[in-house]
Fold this protein.
Amino acid sequence: LDRVPWAGCGPAAADCLAPGGVLVVKDIQQAAANAPADPADPFAAFQMGPMRLVPVFASSLHKRDAVTFFFQVYDLQVDGTGKANGSVRLKLAKESGELLQALPETPIQTAVFSTALGPVALAAFAPGRYLVQIEATDKLAQKTTSAQTAFEILP
């Protein structure tokens, strides 16, 4: 458990495989099953199997927007049966640190885990700067790591 990738990353998904945060996604599109990613597609690096993630590269969003928070956790230790024992938790806070929401822990039983939360309508949030944080724990390795990304909501 040494990486929580996908933080407000650049155009190549492979560049995001370092401690970072959560990818803020504008849309998740279905691609044809077993179809290779089209290298001419600007989001080809964000295709994962039949899912194509359309990231938000700007950190400023508007109240009319809806976003999805996507993250992956890699390298959890597995036991003799090949099962991991970990958990992840997503938190949303104001930039000042005021916690707005903390989701319950989600158990992980595989060495690699990914999930998306959303779409989250931003209309209910006041304009301002926010942080979304992922906290991942590998209970077998007794390690916890966290990563975050910031975004701003404009009127």
In short: The CA atoms of residues 48 and 143 lie 27 Å apart.
